[in-house]
Amino acid sequence: MKTFTLSIAFFISGWFTCQANGYQCYNYTGTVGKASINLSYQITPDYFGEAAKKNFNINGVYSYTQYNTPIRLEGILDASQQTVTLYEMNKEQRTATFILSLQNQKISGTWTKVGTTSSLPVHLQLTTSLNDTATAATEIPQFDSLPDYYFVGVYTKKAGATQAEMTSLKIMRKKDHRLFQEISFTDATVPTGNLMTVIYDQIEVTSPKAKNFTVANQYGRTGGYWNIVWNSKTQRFEKAVEPIAD
Predict the structure, then answer these.
(1) For the chain, what are the domain ranges?
(2) What fold does the segment set 25-128 form as a domain?
(3) Which helix (H) or strand (E) holds 152?
(4) Which tens digits make up the pLDDT trace of 74-93?
(5) Left, alpha or beta for 137 (phi > 0: left; psi -120 to 50: alpha)?
(6) Does the pLDDT at position 30 exceed 80?
(7) Least confident of 37-41, 62-66, 85-89, 128-132
(8) CA–CA separation, 110 and 149 (whole Å)
(9) Residues paired with 155 in a beta bridge
């Protein structure tokens, strides 16, 4: 996992704190217009290398609970103004913009689709957060998903560890938001789910049709991954015996 040092301290209404050398994520639930959503964003200073994104410092994902398909977000946190601008992304194209104001543990603002002038109101409530000092289990959504399933990593900091890691992965059914299966990584000899800089990018779907995917981990000199494959006979996902070095 890429490490970083924050150049400014984020202190917003007493709950937005700075944590160097690790993940710093905030999970919300709420609405866009009348539609229910879940939204998560991560502080990622120094992640964006493009000149056009020199002020960008956050990544995120959100999903409408009716569909449960993650949508990528990126944008700018202005700590001095207590505002967040998030751009909804489809590959490299912006499809909508969130303009949000931070108010204690709540967020309010607007969502506007690209090419339109009308906006929908946004109201969000902070539910959980993750940093590398927290030991309580925190669920973090993953961006990549299968046609019928989405993924939620369960993160915690083990005793003696320096970083939070994914101790299990929840495989959720999109059609009804129910848990289908949970895969444990507590038996792993190296940390899982904290290799990639953006915490939402630990899963890579390698075959949507076959329902196969990988989970990033710290195996090998530069990191590796677990292979997770679909067993058509048992109708369950199976984790490889050991990870593979990348």
Answers:
(1) 25-128, 134-245
(2) Lipocalin (2.40.128)
(3) strand 149-156
(4) 999 998 889 999 999 998 99
(5) beta
(6) yes
(7) 128-132
(8) 29
(9) 138, 166
